[in-house]
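Honest question from a wet-lab person: if I give you the sequences of every part of a complex, can you actually get the arrangement of the whole thing, not just the pieces? Trying it with mine:
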Amino acid sequence: MIGSLIAQEARSLRRTLGGTAGILVLVTFVCLAGAALDILLIGAVGLVVAITAAVAFTPLVLGILAENYWRTMYGREGYFTMALPVAGRSLFAAKVIFGLITAFAAAVASVALLLACAAAFALSIDQHPARSIREGLAQIPDGMGVFLAIALSLQLIYLVIVGAALMSIGASARFNHLGFGAPVIGGVVTYVVMTAVSFVAMLLVPLGIAIDGPDAGAFVAEGMLPTFLAQVAGHSPDGPEVVGVGVLFTSVAASVVFAVWGARTVERSTSLR
Amino acid sequence: MGDNGSGKTTLLKILAGVLADWEGTVSLADHSPGPASKQLVSFLPDASFLPDSHRPADSISQFSRFFADFDEAKAREMVDFFGLPWDRSLKEMSKGMREKLQISLAMSRRARIYLLDEPISGVDPASRDVILRGILQNFAEDALLVISTHLIQDVEQVVDSVVFLKDGQVFLEGAADDLRDAHGSSLDALFRKVYAS
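Yes, you can. This is the full assembly:
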């Protein structure tokens, strides 16, 4: 049944997602054409618009997914969804799995569009696009590149799961008199708590990435606390400066907690208004 | 049956398994509200639950994908019986038309229990008769049909049993004929008397 539910998600969103993606890709490439040809004024503005469209791609898709989740689970269409003979956790799982697939596809599209922007910029200054992009990527230390890729992927997973869970928790009987305000308040509270917890994890979890010294970009077995204390005291740390990666663990832990909480809420506390 | 705010919709939502905020015991064909009961229950909510972009054929396909007991041919017959346009989306249909399409879908399941929440409210008297005829012609004799309404006069002749709800409580219940005999009046007159006081 989960397969049918995921297919239903794809069926109901294909026009909206396809239309949005098509418009953004079209805007990006039209603007990039102006930038690549280095047309006076239009080229510079076009590049900015293209980069904006590329960066906005994933957040827009996440917004569409969130609107669809709320409408089909707790809006009037929720009466169809919730009357289906399936467990609440299956509904939640299907929505989250489809959301993750779509969000990752959007992120890949965003990266591809940003690479196209870089290529157009290289052309506009008479450089070879592929070589220019390669040189740009080579500036990023290996460890930092891996860290960024993992961090962005985990952040995407976190946003999809926590977003869905917060909407379901906000729509449960205890909070649903607040309407969509409940998940918004939940989102603000979660953001504040997660920021504090992530900061503490970056300081204390003994795993980080060195950002200077001979091992720059390598993983090291220490958190950010020595670097942080040295910065506060106004002098350089004894060892290399380190960025703590404890934030990755808090993202994973929060994603797991909210996945369980969200599924349980849909299963046991669904209350359509 | 009951006046506004008496708990009719709440009761049907609990029975349909779309409301978890309740206390007590609920059993539908030996199942608590949940996935097992939802296989046996066809629920028509008092809300337009289909996407506005759907045409009747889209909604029929959607129901047939998710409900094993859904009779697609019967749904098409009912859409024709109600005279609904196949080429129009729900956005382009009147409230009565949307209601008729939703009734066609709900009644085309071979369910053990049908829960219809205010299926005739908000439509004109002529349409009410057509809708009731459509409902009564399309459910099995051994199935249970529960209709919530405050339009007593329209359903007076078709109900077997009646539950009057007031302020979330069962106020009066019994076989329709027994209640009429005991009170010496029609259900409609009894309803007016009960809820006017």
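Two things worth pointing out. The beta strands of chain A are 208-210, 219-220, 242-244. Chain A has a mean pLDDT of 91.
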